[in-house]
Task: inverse folding
């Protein structure tokens, strides 16, 4: 008014707006009807006939699977039988008291924060943390709380921030298929297309890649809603997906299908790799207009707010693109915007990101409005068989029935899994027959000319300091009884890597001594040979402490006279810096070493300049460990690949050493997981076996 601005709303529009307002408090079924057929519902509420002029400009609708727009309420699934994997040892973290690292579990950290807060309020001088006295001071409380935040951030990799805007206040509520198969869309109508190789692709395919493209084309033409491409790491899933997208572009250009965008969803660190792969394999202009919808790029896409107050994206720009690149978090945070766009195809890279049926991110992906979906993952079963169900329910809703029945049938009875495999697994000799849900090939079978991969178990007896710390940890467990099992596993895990992690500096005051650790001794013996050959190595190491520049990187730089300390890739390294370090490592000449955390460095990186992989510390899931090794063992590698497992063994009871028992369990899990439908993650019984194996020699480890 003060600026002379008036808004005049005619009576019919006023009535329609009032009806829209009334719908906000209507039943869920009524709101769903309005979302799918807004004009019809408004006409009915206003008592209008079809002859009345329309008040609507039609926009894109949400997918048929969407039931409502509402607050997010995480589902509770108490009937799912889950192996008790939560019993696993904690991740590497703790507090350093008087130069000694005291390992802690998440529960112990929570308790320490509460006790420290209480002690400060009561004026008490200290608290006890795992038998160690910690002064009750505000700065120590602040340190514990900061550690807690860091641990929570590390334990939730799926919550990777988009750094832009605000997460959605409202979400798209979908038919979940948890208790029954309420949404069943395994197939739709057949689609146009001829099984030919697209002219847009400029690099020649390998035979298995050509077969993979034809399998995807069969899914599309026969009207399938989607497919799971689960080829082994390094077989070129990205290439096959790009070839399929190029083929779709040809069909769009012919006018046989609508010109709707393709949505590619991947972890942020892989999106730039996808663009590089497009430049490598596709002729210009590639797939056409590309829009980036992740990270900093989201700033330029923000347009106003939804009715719930959440930030919206420019759906017109997204919808007019030929291909949209987004990370999983962006799709989840801005799901009302992404869900309003009709896509020709959605491609999910590292699709195990949506393995959890209870995650908001998973629900947002399943709410996307798409004709076709491709889920790409080398590990569709990471922790449990329900991981597979969850991904399959996104690409072919209803194909595996409802989650409750699936869990009761296959997770409770492993003997039934073979029947499931026979039902969904596409045999390559039947590639041109009716396409099944999942295609999986191994690079050892498909890559002619791929160099040999040789595994080395490198055993070294524990030196005195390490043996003494190891024996002390066993003795403490024996005093504590069954309640000390977890603490013992974590202590032995750290001690077997280096006693520094539990004792701090040695008697000479040196912070880190190679000779105090059998694994370190073995690793440096291995690196000496690699240095003489002027080759490169990756070292996978979980401990962030040892990755610190003044510890292991400095030791390596001094020993081998390197011009700079070895580069590190872990969860604290940004995407841009990660790519810069990969490029620098790949382009460098001569000997070099890179340190990587298994979770951060085990996915999405190609480091074929190295042909040596050293697993200095072990991950509890052999599938994750194998992903790490495959950073070097993939297309582009032309040297023999050597994978090393340094072992710290007890001098007179080698087979009962922690490292040897862990190796036995890892090999057992690898064998079980070969058929892909058995989880390779450790369960409670696995950890109990580990403890029994380590403790089988009651006194042998005390013998000097």
Result:
């Amino acid at each position: 008014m003060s600026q002379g601005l008036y808004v005049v709303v005619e009576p019919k529009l006023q009535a329609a707006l009032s009806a829209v307002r009334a719908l906000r408090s209507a039943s869920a079924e009524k709101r769903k009807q309005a979302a799918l057929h807004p004009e019809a519902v408004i006409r009915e509420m206003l008592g209008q006939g079809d002859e009345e002029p329309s008040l609507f400009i039609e926009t894109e609708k949400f997918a048929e699977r969407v039931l409502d727009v509402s607050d997010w309420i995480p589902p509770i699934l108490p009937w799912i039988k889950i192996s008790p994997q939560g019993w696993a040892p904690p991740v590497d973290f703790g507090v350093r008291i008087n130069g000694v690292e005291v390992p802690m579990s998440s529960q112990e950290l929570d308790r320490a924060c509460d006790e420290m807060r209480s002690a400060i309020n009561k004026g008490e001088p200290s608290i006890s943390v795992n038998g160690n006295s910690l002064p009750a001071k505000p700065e120590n409380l602040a340190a514990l709380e900061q550690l807690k935040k860091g641990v929570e951030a590390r334990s939730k990799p799926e919550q990777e921030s988009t750094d832009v805007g605000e997460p959605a206040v409202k979400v798209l509520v979908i038919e979940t298929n948890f208790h029954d198969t309420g949404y069943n869309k395994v197939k739709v109508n057949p689609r146009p297309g001829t099984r030919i190789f697209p002219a847009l692709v400029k690099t020649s395919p390998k035979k298995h890649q050509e077969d993979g493209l034809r399998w995807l084309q069969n899914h599309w033409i026969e009207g399938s809603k989607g497919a799971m491409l689960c080829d082994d790491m390094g077989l070129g899933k990205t290439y096959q997906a790009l070839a399929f997208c190029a083929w779709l572009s040809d069909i769009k250009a012919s006018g046989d299908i609508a010109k709707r965008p393709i949505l590619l969803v991947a972890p942020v660190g892989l999106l730039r790799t996808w663009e590089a792969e497009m430049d490598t394999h596709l002729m210009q202009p590639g797939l056409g207009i590309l829009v980036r919808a992740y990270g900093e790029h989201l700033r330029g896409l923000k347009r106003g707010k939804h009715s719930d107050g959440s930030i919206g994206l420019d759906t017109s720009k997204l919808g007019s693109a030929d291909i949209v690149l987004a990370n999983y978090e962006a799709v989840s945070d801005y799901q009302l915007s992404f869900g309003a766009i009709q896509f020709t195809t959605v491609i999910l890279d590292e699709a195990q990101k949506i393995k959890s049926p209870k995650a908001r991110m998973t629900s947002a992906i399943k709410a996307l409005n798409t004709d076709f979906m491709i889920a790409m993952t080398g590990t569709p079963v990471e922790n449990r068989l329900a991981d597979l169900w969850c991904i399959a329910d996104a690409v072919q809703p209803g194909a595996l029935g409802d989650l409750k029945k699936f869990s009761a049938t296959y997770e409770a009875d492993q003997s039934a899994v073979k029947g499931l495999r026979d039902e969904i697994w596409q045999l390559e000799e039947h590639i041109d027959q009716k396409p099944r849900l999942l295609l999986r090939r191994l690079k050892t079978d498909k890559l002619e000319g791929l160099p040999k991969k040789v595994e080395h178990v490198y055993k070294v007896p524990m030196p005195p300091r390490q043996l003494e710390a190891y024996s002390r940890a066993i003795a403490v467990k024996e005093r504590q009884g069954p309640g000390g099992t977890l603490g013992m596993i974590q202590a032995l895990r750290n001690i077997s890597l280096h006693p520094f992690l539990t004792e701090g500096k040695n008697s000479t005051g040196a912070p880190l001594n190679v000779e105090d650790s059998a694994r370190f001794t073995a690793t440096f013996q291995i690196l000496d040979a690699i240095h003489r050959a002027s080759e490169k190595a990756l070292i996978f190491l979980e401990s962030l402490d040892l990755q610190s520049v003044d510890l292991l990187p400095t030791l390596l730089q001094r020993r081998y006279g390197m011009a700079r300390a070895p580069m590190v890739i872990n969860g604290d390294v940004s995407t841009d810096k990660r790519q810069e370090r990969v490029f620098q490592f790949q382009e460098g000449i001569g000997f070099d070493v890179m340190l990587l955390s298994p979770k951060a460095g085990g996915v999405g990186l190609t480091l074929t300049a190295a042909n040596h992989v050293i697993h200095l510390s072990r991950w509890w899931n052999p599938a994750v460990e194998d992903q790490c090794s495959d950073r070097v063992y993939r297309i582009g590698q032309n040297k023999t690949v050597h994978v090393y497992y340094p072992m710290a063994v007890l001098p007179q009871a080698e087979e009962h050493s922690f490292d040897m028992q862990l190796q036995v369990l890892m090999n057992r899990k690898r064998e079980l997981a070969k058929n892909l439908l058995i989880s390779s993650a450790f369960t409670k019984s696995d950890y109990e076996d580990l403890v029994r194996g380590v403790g089988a020699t009651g006194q042998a480890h005390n013998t000097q």
Observations:
- The longest strand covers residues 453-461.
- DSSP finds 27 helices and 22 strands in the chain.
- The radius of gyration is 28 Å.
